[in-house]
């Protein structure tokens, strides 16, 4: 065999060897790429994680409180509303709060911090938080802001309020019947329409059963200051008042009444156990219904800037835990008026009404609208004294 023939045969053999090796390699790759057949899933096995929908992140909501949550009054009532949200939504909502926040630059800082922390809705629960919230709301257009008892709104800020004057009127009916001196006392915070409405309604309720009733007022220039509230209550008692109501946040007024053998009402929350001998009833606010509605509005995308004012009709305001010492006929009167409020057939402020100088403020047969109520700047006939000067 020639040299060239041997070389050709060797080359052919080499090529055959390479081809066989390549075929083996290709076969090996194909076997690795083909996955083993999956065993059939049983009906009891859960779906693969990849096909399960991702769990939605909980909505973060925050509350800003003026006083401590255990004050048995205003802040306590709002915190009960927050707890109602937790009960309603469970792990779908993370509800937090900051208590004892002054109505100052601190409020702005706290509200801004809560927005920065990812809260999608923030409730500011005191009138003095209005301006700080307006400012912060402008900085966080994707966050919803809600202010209690105020009046300023924007695209992402709204207002919620309560008809406190309805339960103040109901308390007045009892006060007018229970007073022996004919003089009632009222501890006021600030002379703003909200508070003036309550003083006037309390007096009108009392006058509905005793037209000769008079009301004295002492201002404390604070929403929550137990020592001042107690001193104001004592001053009213020294001046002849024997049944007291308040528009402040602690239980100091009813406790002072207890110490002196007088009567008083709880305000914003049930205070019956705080001073059981003095307590005639509690004018309460149940915020839970509104807070639940508001959270739902955010969740379903229907939240809008508006003002909401609920009262007895909506189950937000009520006079509860009426004491056994209140006569049966007076309790029946309370039930009658409350039923009319629920039916929407009774308006506390219906003319003719005059202020304590004799000037007509509401014509005969006229029921006050919200615009009228928002501008109340007077005492009705029967309330002694003048409003503090704004100067």
Describe the structure.
The protein has helices at residues 3-33, 74-89, 105-116, 130-139, 164-178, 193-207, 226-238, 252-260, 288-300, 328-343, 370-373, and strands at residues 59-64, 93-98, 121-124, 144-148, 157-162, 183-188, 214-219, 243-246, 263-268, 279-285, 307-310, 317-320, 353-354, 360-362. Helix 6 links the parallel strand 6 (183-188) and strand 7. It contains 11 helices and 14 strands. The strands form 3 sheets. The chain has a 6-stranded parallel beta sheet with strand order 2-1-3-4-5-11, sandwiched between helices. A 6-stranded mixed beta sheet has the order 7-6-8-9-10-12, sandwiched between helices. A two-stranded antiparallel ribbon has the order 13-14. Residues 1-49 have low confidence and may be disordered. Helices cover 39% and strands 18% of the residues. The longest helix has 31 residues, at 3-33.
Task: Reconstruct the topology from this structure.
Elements: H1 3-33, E1 59-64, H2 74-89, E2 93-98, H3 105-116, E3 121-124, H4 130-139, E4 144-148, E5 157-162, H5 164-178, E6 183-188, H6 193-207, E7 214-219, H7 226-238, E8 243-246, H8 252-260, E9 263-268, E10 279-285, H9 288-300, E11 307-310, E12 317-320, H10 328-343, E13 353-354, E14 360-362, H11 370-373
Parallel strand pairs: 1-2, 1-3, 3-4, 4-5, 5-11, 6-7, 6-8, 8-9, 9-10
Antiparallel strand pairs: 10-12, 13-14
């Amino acid at each position: 065999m020639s040299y060239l023939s041997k070389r050709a045969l060797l080359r052919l053999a080499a090529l055959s060897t390479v081809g066989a090796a390549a075929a083996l390699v290709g076969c090996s790759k194909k076997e690795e790429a083909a996955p083993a057949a999956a065993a059939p899933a049983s009906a009891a096995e859960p779906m693969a994680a990849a096909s399960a929908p991702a769990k939605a992140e909980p909505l973060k909501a925050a509350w800003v409180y003026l006083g401590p949550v255990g004050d048995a009054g205003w802040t306590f009532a709002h915190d009960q509303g927050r707890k109602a949200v937790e009960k309603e939504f469970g792990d779908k909502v993370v509800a937090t709060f900051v208590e004892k926040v002054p109505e100052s630059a601190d409020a702005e800082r706290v509200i801004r911090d809560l927005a920065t922390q990812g809260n999608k809705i923030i409730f500011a629960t005191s009138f003095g938080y209005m301006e700080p919230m307006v400012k912060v709301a402008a900085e966080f257009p994707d966050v919803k802001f809600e202010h209690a008892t105020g009046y300023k709104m924007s695209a992402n800020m709204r207002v919620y309020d309560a008809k406190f004057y309805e339960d103040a009127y109901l308390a007045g009916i009892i006060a007018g019947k229970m007073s022996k001196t004919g003089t009632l006392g009222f501890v006021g915070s600030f002379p703003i329409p909200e508070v003036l409405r309550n003083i006037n309604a309390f007096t009108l309720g009392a006058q509905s059963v005793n037209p000769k009733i008079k009301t004295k007022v002492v201002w404390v220039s604070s929403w929550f200051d137990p020592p001042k509230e107690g001193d104001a209550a004592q001053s009213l008692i020294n001046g002849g008042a024997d049944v007291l109501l308040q528009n402040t946040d602690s239980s100091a007024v009813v406790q002072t009444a207890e110490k002196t053998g007088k009567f008083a009402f709880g305000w914003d929350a049930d205070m019956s156990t705080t001073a059981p001998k003095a307590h005639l009833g509690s004018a309460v606010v149940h915020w839970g219904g509104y807070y639940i509605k508001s959270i739902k509005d955010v969740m379903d995308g229907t939240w809008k800037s508006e003002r909401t004012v609920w009262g007895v009709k909506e189950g937000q305001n009520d006079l509860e835990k009426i004491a056994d010492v209140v006569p049966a006929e007076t309790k029946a009167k309370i039930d009658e008026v409350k039923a009319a409020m629920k039916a929407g057939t009774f308006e506390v402020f219906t003319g003719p009404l005059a202020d304590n100088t004799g000037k007509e403020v509401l014509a005969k047969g006229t029921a006050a609208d919200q615009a009228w109520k928002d501008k109340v700047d007077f005492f009705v006939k029967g309330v002694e004294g003048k409003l503090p000067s704004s100067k």
